[in-house]
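Ticket #4471: structure output looks truncated?

Reporter: J.K.
Steps to reproduce: submitted the chain below (878 residues) through the standard prediction queue, then opened the result file.
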Amino acid sequence: MIRGCVRRCVGLDGGRRPGSGRAAWLVVAMALMVAGAAATAWAEDTTAKAPMDVSAPETTGRDVNETEMKKNDEVAVEGEVLTVTGTLESKASGVSIMDNRMLRHLSGGNGDLNELLLVLPDIQPDDSWRSAKTAGEILPVNISISGGKAYQNNFSVDGISNNSLLDPGSERHQVVNDVPGHPQEIFLDSDLVEEVAVYDSNVPARFGDFSGGVVDAKTVKAGIKPKGKLYYRTTRSQWTHFFQWEEEEAEDEDDVSTAPPSSDDDVDEDPRFEKHIYGGSLSMPLGDTLGVLGSVNEVRSTISKRHFKGWKDEKRHLRNIMTKLSWDPDYLNAFELSLFHSPYEEERFLSDIKNSDYTIKGGGDRIQGRWNRGLGFGALEVTGAFRKSVNEREAPKDYRQWAATASKPWGADANSKYSKEGGYGDISKTQESFTTRADLSEVSFNGWGGRHTLSTGIAYDLTKGTFDRKETSMIYTDPVTSDTVISPGNSYDCDDNQQYFSMRKVYDADDSSAVVNALSLYGQDEMVCGRVTLRPGLRVAANDFMDNLDLAPRMSASWDSFGDGGTVFTSGFNRYHSATFITYKLREAKKPYRTEVRKPYQDMVFSGSDPSGTLGGFWWPVSDAGNNVETFSSLKTPYADEFQVGVDQRVGGGTLGYKYVRRKGRNQFARTYGAVQPDGLKYYTMTNDGFYDHESHRVAWGRRFGAHSLNLNMTYQDTDASNGSYDSEVDDDRVWYGDEVTYKAELPRSTFNKPWMANATAIVSLPARMTLTTIARYRGSYTKVENTGNTREVPDDQAQINPLTGEKVSEDLPVYAERDRSSSVVVDCKLRWKLPLWGQSVFTSTLEVNNLFNKKVLADGKNYELGRQFWLGGEVSF
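Returned output as attached by the reporter:
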């Protein structure tokens, strides 16, 4: 009884009865009081035994000396030991910066960097973030910056690209001839990041290959002083409250017909999962000038899913291993050598399909080095790297969709008329890249009316992509039941006296490769003329795939109106070119599938093929070969033109900033459909007819109160795009939308489309080495296009043709319609408590409560975001 009362109080009662906000406050208050009392007692008892090495600033009160806060993680203020909260700056000029301390306070969830960036303005997560149907997933969330799609960002680690060019936006697992990818090659642990800079506008000319934003992460330096740590964090479904769709909720819809449908993706019962995150790091100086760092991070998840009439486990595993060597032989030179090993693996199965276990592999490896040289007239940085990443699938070779009969009965357990088995075969895609670049910066001189600081650089990238299907795979469909048919010596595609397959799609063994050479160079001048600063720049890029010479002018200006930094106006005009995905070139060489059919001959069918189509009972080809994308090589490079204007104003002890950004994306990849062909399909070619338009207004204010900090921001954005998502750009499914049959690619944008977003981030340093981080996220109401669950028949003039009979196919297509989403406010809290152990050793315990007030927020379809969720963790640092 007591256990049940506690579970209901904190909202862990299976998701059917929402926990109350009062209960949540009670739980948190009790946790704070108990932890505070214990922390105070321990602190008083241990401070005398093992005092922390902190320096008390000369100032008194809450105005902690900034120098002391930069030197130490903790400072003494009025006799209390307070934890420094770190730095978060978001300026109207276009860059937001977070240091390692701030990232540690924000860190939570799966620990990926992308999730921590969501506290910044004009950054939106994918709709799957925190959805119940993805509760057990561990990959970094996809993010949109300044209206761009998730794969249009540029991620870099220590100046080297971390962008995957192998279907970076594809998340579809059940695709026969492809493998899901991710925008990033490796998934960096946020704890290894010393500082991250996010550019959402006025991006310097040094950066290219994007039309969204730039995320530039710098990893921690190795071996400055001896230190290390071990840590562990965990959560599970039993610590998570889930909401379920109730049919009466459809009554709240303006039009009941637009209520979301039931689908395989719906969470119709509470998910079951466990997540474990653990690892350690060690940093050691090897003398006065040499240091080494080693780090291992493991993220594991087990997800239980329905399979026929029982449950079956899927697994996710991400490993991050980093080794770094830093050598500073003198004050002019600094060398770094880093090795990254970041494999990712998923163990999955196809629901209600027998013998369908398959494995997805991703991630990659890289070795990179950097040399920084101080010159008499500037600074030189030379970097180089070799990278390899993979997208692979290991699966059963063939898929067979039998009719559910007495000899093939398992489909009945899934309430299906088909008994399905098998998979889609093995596929391997790889990306290997060699990168080298040299950057010269801080070249300063006086002249031409002001003080100039020049920077310039050149970069070369060689990228090789491969696609490999080692074995031919078959997709068997259209079973025909017959009590007389037989297939001598063949039981693979015929069940004697029961049924046989009359159609199959053949995906031949295939391999292709593509090599792209890319060269880019840039120049930029930051000119200070009194209170005015101008930053003109130009970036020039070319590659041997698109055969385009891309010129990207960059121009920004600022005016310090009073000369004291109190009021600074900024403006900019810029052009950004998107990256060239090597997957496009691989698709040019990929073989299309073949369709084959057969009919019995004297009640016999055979497993062999007859290309001529004259032998009865054998497989013979029909005309509808699979679609193959037309050539990309003649296309122009997609680009975005940007206009920005803003102001930063000191007010209330902090900086208040306003910024307006307008982006016009042109020459975006889209497709044009030809006339209806005899097989009833429209074939497409890729074009530059796509576009997107983005406008945003952003207001941000931030301030540090001694060892505490508060950051607020609000964004209004409006984005209109011709292509809603990466998948839709290569998806040829047809749907009803309004009164027309259209392709899903032509539907309005379905994600990253929330107009109003706001964030409040407060980090409070409490006595006894405790820190409370609170993040409140506001999402305004918006409209989303979704599948209604209804279907409509296709008109005769748009019907497809059955290749076997030549007759028109009667087809019902799903109906899509607009559906409203209400506004919401979700509050997350994180409590950290540091307990000194011995010497410099510290134990840190963490309690995270996501969605503190158990807010019910609809994600997509009939799936809700997670309710209140608890994470527990501990760390020993030394």
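Triage note (M.O.): checked the attachment and the full token line is present. The two ends are 43 Å apart (CA to CA).
Status: closed, working as intended.
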